[in-house]
């Protein structure tokens, strides 16, 4: 009975030691579980915060994307308007250029025609001038001849006048 009692007491001590060991392990595991729960709680809060920031970032991005799209569309519209204006101005300038080219061609033709007319007029005037020069020279020669004859005649008339005057003086 003593042996049995001693054996049972030994078993009870072993069981108490084992229970104590299990209790310590449970407390350690409980403490570790508490740490894990706290860590999980912090991670969940951090995840919620990250989700909130992600949602806000996503919303901000969508707003930015919308604004960028609107700005791009406005820029595209402005560019199309500028292109239209420049294209229209280009057509006008091209037409003006064609008109100026046509005017230049007309003026060149007119200039060539006037040059030809001027050359003909110059030749005509040169011929007339030569003819008038010839007529003048001929007339001058005739007038010199007439002057020479008139001088001769004047000399003769003076001589005759002198003789008549001499005769008159002799008669007196």
Question: What descriptive keywords fit this protein?
Answer:
single chain, mainly alpha, rod-shaped, GOLIM4, GOLI4 protein
Could you explain how this protein is built, in words?
- This is GOLI4 protein.
- Keywords: Coiled coil.
- Residues 5-60, 90-142 form a coiled coil.
- InterPro entries: GOLIM4.
- By secondary structure, this protein is mainly α.
- It has one domain.
- Helices cover 99% and strands 0% of the residues.
- The chain has one helix and no strands.
- The chain has one helix spanning 2-171.
- The model has no long low-confidence stretch (mean pLDDT 96).
Uncertain segments of ≥5 residues (pLDDT<50)? none
Q: What is the number of strand segments?
A: 0
Please indicate the count of domains: 1
Number of helices, where a helix is a run of at least 4 consecutive DSSP H or I residues: 1
* Morphology call: rod-shaped
| Terminal residue distance | 235 Å
Multimer state: single chain
Tell me the series of helices and strands, N- to C-terminal. Answer: H
**Strand residue content:** under 5%
Organism: Mesembrinibis cayennensis
Coiled coil: 5-60, 90-142
Keywords: Coiled coil
Protein name: GOLI4 protein
């Amino acid at each position: 009975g003593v042996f049995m009692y001693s054996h049972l007491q030994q078993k009870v001590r072993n069981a108490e030691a084992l229970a104590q060991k299990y209790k310590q392990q449970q407390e350690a595991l409980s403490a570790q579980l508490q740490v894990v729960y706290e860590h999980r709680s912090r991670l969940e809060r951090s995840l919620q915060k990250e989700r909130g920031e992600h949602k806000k970032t996503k919303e901000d991005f969508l707003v930015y994307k919308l604004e960028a799209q609107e700005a791009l569309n406005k820029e595209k519209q402005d560019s199309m308007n500028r292109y239209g204006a420049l294209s229209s101005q280009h057509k006008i300038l091209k037409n003006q250029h064609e008109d100026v080219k046509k005017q230049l061609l007309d003026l060149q033709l007119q200039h060539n025609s006037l040059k030809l007319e001027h050359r003909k007029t110059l030749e005509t005037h040169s011929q007339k001038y030569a003819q008038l020069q010839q007529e003048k020279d001929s007339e001058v020669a005739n007038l010199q001849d007439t002057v020479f004859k008139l001088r001769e005649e004047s000399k003769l008339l003076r001589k005759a006048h002198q003789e008549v005057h001499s005769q008159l003086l002799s008669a007196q």
